[in-house]
Amino acid sequence: MAVHVVEDDPGVSDSLAILLEHLGFEVVCHADAEDFFRAGPPAAKDIVFVDLILPGISGAELIRWLNGLKDPPRIVAMSGQSQNTIDLQLRGLEGVGEMSIIRKPLSHGAITQQLATLRS
């Protein structure tokens, strides 16, 4: 199982990768959705952390694409935006696939809690 991090902020991406690697995960980082697409689709057992605000193709569009896969991975959407903005971006995705939302700034506790939920 790999964890993919799609995040354009290098500081957030690096910090998240270090934490995930420390927790024993294989981590693959992508600066944008286009780079993620070039790498090929993730496996169903993978976890994909997606920043909702990305340059180019948005995180919400990436999540829609992931949910359209035959066997979609587990998804953690990340955002520092207001709840109303998050709701607008993710409109129509309720009940589709396994997705959770984590708020920025990210914390060790919130990340490990999300991973525990996804592993169960």
Search tags:
120 residues; alpha/beta; Rossmann fold; 5-stranded parallel beta sheet; 5 helices; CheY-like_superfamily; Sig_transdc_resp-reg_receiver
Characterize the structure shown.
With 120 residues, this protein is of the alpha/beta class. It has one domain: Rossmann fold. 39% of the residues lie in helices and 22% in strands. The protein has helices at residues 10-22, 33-38, 59-67, 83-89, 108-119, and strands at residues 2-6, 26-30, 47-51, 74-79, 99-103. A five-stranded parallel sheet has the order 2-1-3-4-5, sandwiched between helices. Helix 1 (10-22) links the parallel strand 1 and strand 2. The protein is globular. The relative contact order is 0.17. This is Response regulator. InterPro entries: Bact_response_regulator, CheY-like_superfamily, Sig_transdc_resp-reg_receiver.
Topology:
Elements: E1 2-6, H1 10-22, E2 26-30, H2 33-38, E3 47-51, H3 59-67, E4 74-79, H4 83-89, E5 99-103, H5 108-119
Parallel strand pairs: 1-2, 1-3, 3-4, 4-5
Keywords: Phosphoprotein, Transcription, Transcription regulation
Domain Response regulatory: 2-119
Protein name: Response regulator
* Strand element count: 5
The CATH topology comes to Rossmann fold
Number of helices: 5
Number of domains: 1
Question: Which descriptor suits the 3D outline?
Answer: globular
Order of helices and strands: EHEHEHEHEH
Whole-angstrom Rg: 13 Å
What is the CATH homologous superfamily assignment? Answer: Response regulator
Domain Response regulatory: 2-119
Keywords: Phosphoprotein, Transcription, Transcription regulation
GO biological process, one term: phosphorelay signal transduction system
Protein name: Response regulator
